[in-house]
Every structure is written in structure tokens, then in C-alpha cells.
Write a structure and sequence with these properties.
7 strands; binds S-adenosylmethionine
Length: about 325
């Protein structure tokens, strides 16, 4: 079985970066699932005042999902692969999105020190050589009450999910990888998912790392049982509104947490050139960011002490117009 790690994996993602956006565009539900996980972070007020980390941003699909869910949040997007990161940074982004090259296990050394109100790790954790070390690092970067969403190919328990994953890989993923010359990376994906935690085990891993309120949330459509969002809350003190707390003594609350000169910026994203955008227009996949996100939608418990968060009154899970659970 093929398992790529560290430099070998980074080199494989560098090579795969050429065709990555083409393949994800052909993947039904790839982008809407990322947006769903980003919404599940439950960032209130369209992310205004929040600092968010996109860990393993790749070519920027997860960054775009965060921007759709929280258009006013300040986003730091990190990836170890120069090829993936350059493609991400070459896209058009508002000023408050910054790209940094760093491995997940070495964030402070790269100037990524936070603190952050939320972290999205999309298809990252399974690739990490030591997922527990990455979770511990993420926990340290989050403010107390800060939120983590792990968006991952992590199978549901039982034989059906494994059979579906095998069929999808043998029928589509592995042939597509061979066509683009990235066979090794897509074999790594296939076998890596089979070896990685099932969704309940991934939730247990987050709990062991100290996260509270951990929940496993499913995806609709063909990804049911294959892709999940596992959400959790960083412990340590009364949670407060995003952006308002957890700032280390002596650190200005406005610092981006990125060392000067490290950030890759798009040519049209010079500081001060463009104001933060207005919240995105409503669409089926990206409903207008709510001022307060009900706990059922974010998948996480309400933030105590945050007046924008309602109490935990039982309500039916919200559904989109298509009837999908959000
Ligand atoms: C499958 S891609 C997903 C990219 C993006 N999050 C998305 O949803 O499209 C995984 C990304 O994680 C990056 N990655 C893997 N292991 C990493 C690590 N230890 N530190 C930083 N980035 C890593 C890879 O370079 C790759 O760009």
C-alpha cells in the first residue's frame, strides 16, 4: 500500500497542483461540502472581528469556502506545498486573506502564532505524519472557546462505507490519478483513507487532544458515510465573542499572526487597496451568513457569554431548500 509522508507527500502535491483544480471541479459536491464544513464553524456576524486559520489550504478551495461562510473574517491560509500554495495565492483574494508556506507541525517557526477564533483543517489531518501533534498545535493556537472543524475523508463504521469508498476509488479516483500522472498521490489517498481513523475514532482523537463538544456531522449525497466534519471547541476558560479574547499579553489584538515578509500576497491584494467585502449574496449553497448561528447549524454548542448565540433550546435541524441537513 502506498503511504506518502513529509517531503515525499509535499513533492506529490507540488506535482498534482497542475491538475488539482480540474479534478476538484469534476468532483460533485467537493466545493459545497467544504462550504458546509466552513459554515459548521458557526462564526457569527459574517466573521467580523474573527481570525481564522485554513490549515492545509491547497489551491485555495477551503480558503474560498471560509470566505463564503465568513466574508469578514481575517483568514490565514497555510500549506506545506509551494506548488499548491502558489496556485492558491495567484487567485484573486481580498486584503484580509494571507497565504503562508509552513508545515502543520511547524507553524510558530513560520510566524503563524495566532491566536485564532477558528481553524478549518480540510483533508489535512489524515496526511499528517503525527495527527495528535497537529491537533495539540491547533489547540494551542485557538482562543479558549475557539472552534475546530476537521473536514475529512473519514469513513463511517461498517462495511458499506468501505465498499463505497473502494468502488469510488477503483472506478474514478485511481483512473483519474493515472490520467493526470499523479497515480502515487491518488493511491495514497485511497489507501490512506482505509488506514485512517473511522469517523467515531477521529472524534475520540479530538477529545483526547482536549477538545470539548466534539461532534461528527455527515455530508449529504454520495459523500454520506465517506466525508464528515468533526467539530470541537478549544477548552480553557469562558468562551467569548470571536476576536475579542485569547490575545496573549502584550500582543495587539489586531496582529495577523503572520511574520512580516512571510506572507504570499496576490498582486491585487496590497494592504489598504480594497475594503473587506460585503457578505456574500444568498445562494443555495452559501446562505447569507447569519448574525448568529444556531447551534444545530454550527454543529457546536452555543458560546456562553456570547450574546449573539442563542441558548440550547431544542429545535429541528435546519434544512436547505433541497431538504439537506445543514
Ligand atoms: C487534499 S489537499 C486539500 C487542500 C484544501 N484544503 C482543499 O480542501 O481543497 C491537502 C493539502 O494539505 C497539504 N498538507 C499535507 N500535509 C501537510 C502538512 N503536514 N502541513 C501543511 N500542509 C500539509 C498538502 O500540501 C495539500 O495542499
Amino acid at each position: 500500500m502506498t503511504t506518502l509522508r513529509d517531503a515525499e507527500l509535499t513533492a506529490a502535491f507540488d506535482r498534482a497542483s497542475r491538475a488539482y483544480d480540474l479534478l476538484t471541479a469534476a468532483h460533485p459536491g467537493y466545493h459545497s461540502a467544504l462550504r458546509r464544513s466552513a459554515r459548521r464553524l458557526g462564526l457569527p456576524a459574517a466573521g467580523a472581528g474573527s481570525r481564522v486559520l485554513d490549515l492545509g489550504c491547497g489551491t485555495g478551495s477551503s480558503t474560498a469556502a471560509l470566505l463564503a461562510a465568513a466574508p469578514l473574517a481575517r483568514i490565514t491560509a497555510v500549506d506545506a506545498s509551494p506548488g499548491m500554495l502558489e496556485r492558491a495565492a495567484a487567485k484573486s483574494w481580498p486584503d484580509h486573506v494571507t497565504f503562508v508556506r509552513a508545515a502543520a507541525g511547524e507553524l510558530p517557526a513560520a510566524g503563524v502564532t495566532g491566536p485564532y477564533d477558528a481553524v478549518l483543517a480540510a483533508y489535512l489531518l489524515r496526511n499528517a505524519g503525527d495527527p495528535d501533534r497537529v491537533l495539540a498545535a491547533v489547540r494551542r493556537l485557538l482562543v479558549p472557546g475557539g472552534r475546530l472543524a476537521v473536514h475529512e475523508y473519514t469513513l463511517a463504521d461498517g462495511a458499506a462505507a468501505r465498499a463505497l469508498w473502494t468502488a469510488v476509488c477503483r472506478g474514478i479516483v485511481l483512473p483519474a490519478g493515472r490520467l493526470t500522472g499523479d497515480g502515487a498521490l491518488y493511491r495514497h489517498l485511497y489507501t490512506g483513507v482505509l488506514r485512517f481513523d473511522r469517523a467515531p475514532a477521529l472524534a475520540a482523537r479530538l477529545r483526547r487532544a482536549g477538545f470539548t463538544g466534539v461532534r461528527v456531522l455527515p455530508m449529504p449525497g454520495w459523500q454520506t458515510g465517506i466525508v464528515h466534519t468533526v467539530v470541537g471547541v478549544a477548552p480553557g476558560g469562558a468562551p467569548t465573542a470571536p476576536g475579542a479574547s485569547g490575545v496573549a499579553p502584550g500582543r495587539a489584538s489586531g496582529t495577523a499572526g503572520v511574520a512580516p515578509g512571510r506572507a504570499l500576497r496576490t498582486p491585487d491584494a496590497a494592504p489598504g487597496r480594497r475594503p473587506a467585502p460585503a457578505p456574500a449574496a444568498p445562494s443555495r449553497d452559501t446562505p447569507p451568513p447569519p448574525r448568529s448561528v444556531p447551534p444545530e447549524r454550527s454543529g457546536l454548542p452555543p458560546r456562553s457569554g456570547d450574546p449573539s448565540q442563542p441558548g440550547p433550546a431544542p429545535q429541528p435541524a435546519p434544512r436547505s431548500r433541497s431538504g439537506e441537513q445543514l
